[in-house]
Amino acid sequence: MASSPKDYGLRLETLKIGIVGFGPFAQFLAKTMIKQGHSLAATSRSDYSHLCSQMGVKFFRDMTRFFEEESDVVLLSTSIISLSQVVQSIPFGLLRKRVLFVDVLSVKEHPRDLLLNVLPDDCDLVCTHPMFGPESGKNGWKGLPLVFERVRVRDLNLCSTFLGIFEREGCSLVEMTCQEHDKLAARSQFVTHTIGRMLSEMEIEPTPIDTKGFQMLLQLKETTCTDSFDLYLGLFKHNRFAIEELNNMERALQTVKNKLLEEMEKQ
After folding, report:
1. Chain centroid to CA 220: how far?
2. Of 47, 64, 113, 185, whose CB count within 10 A is highest?
3. pLDDT given for residue 6 in this prediction
4. What is the β-pairing status of strands 124-130 and 145-152?
5. HEC profile for the chain?
6. Which pLDDT score, from 0 to 100, does residue 267 have?
7. What is the pTM of this model?
8. Torsion angle of alpha carbons 235, 238, 240, 246, nearest 10°?
């Protein structure tokens, strides 16, 4: 269900935010966080030191030095596939205060379960999924949904301030359980990506007589296949509801095919 701003209570003014995994999506989020006045640090397997210097973000190749920054919030923006490996490399013993851990992955039960198993008991956890990215959010975030679950939150002020980043940009904040998110996302996001991948395998291309509907399919193919196959694999491997939707699609195609053949035989 959608949450109103009054749910979040009083807020801090700015945060020290540490980002683990500084790829394109993290960079996209970071620009808005910086604009709002938050202080950012980042660490990543790839060297983004030059880019971070230009953006005003502290960059650390070494995970230990990154955690010595004592961020208020640690934002996990890794790929779905690599999350487990990255989490195993985090030196949780260096934490000297309560930290809010937040993930922004496109699946939710997987990071929730993984993090609850390894986070120190006094650390908080909010699982989020911004339902937009650098392309759909390039002209602003107003009206775009942020799905989240406050999995374990004791510091309401800290959580409030973090969620307020999205609220200030006009996002629609939608609070739901990780399970509910994954069930809905399997039907929407995974099905969308699967259709896009199927269209790519069919090698569909523009024609001189394209209808508006076909142009939408071409756009779908381009949009979904721009994302890495690892993302698509993660949507399948780490969302337990995805296999059911894949089977539903296979049955639906077979049903449509059978109806066509049956009607042809009647002619």
Report:
1. 19
2. 185
3. 46
4. antiparallel
5. CECCHHHHCCCCCCCEEEEECCCHHHHHHHHHHHHCCCEEEEECCCCCHHHHHHHCCEEECCHHHHHCCCCCEEEECCCCCCHHHHHHCCCHHHCCCCCEEEECCCCCHHHHHHHHHHCCCCCEEEEEEECCCCCCCCCCCCCCEEEEEEEECCCHHHHHHHHHHHHHCCCEEEECCHHHHHHHHHHHHHHHHHHHHHHHHCCCCCCCCCCHHHHHHHHHHHHHHHCCHHHHHHHHHCCCCHHHHHHHHHHHHHHHHHHHHHHHHHC
6. 85
7. 0.91
8. 30
| pLDDT by residue, tens only, the chain of 267 residues | 444 444 545 556 899 999 999 999 999 999 999 999 999 999 999 999 999 999 999 999 999 999 999 999 999 999 999 999 999 999 999 998 999 999 999 999 999 999 999 999 999 999 999 999 998 999 999 999 999 999 999 999 999 999 999 999 999 999 999 999 999 999 999 999 999 999 999 999 999 999 999 999 999 999 999 999 999 999 999 999 999 999 999 999 999 999 999 999 998
Nearest 5°: CA angle at 14, between 8 and 18?
A: 100
Q: Could you tell me which of 121, 85, 115, 84 has the C-alpha nearest to residue 101?
A: 115
Is 159 within 8 Å of 153 (Cβ atoms)? yes
Q: What is the dihedral of CA 232, 233, 238, 243, to 10 degrees?
A: 90
Q: Residue 242 to residues 22, 156, 197: CA-CA distances in angstroms? A: 27, 33, 15
Q: How far apart are CA 34 and CA 125, in angstroms?
A: 22
- Both tokens of 241, joined, read 């509801």
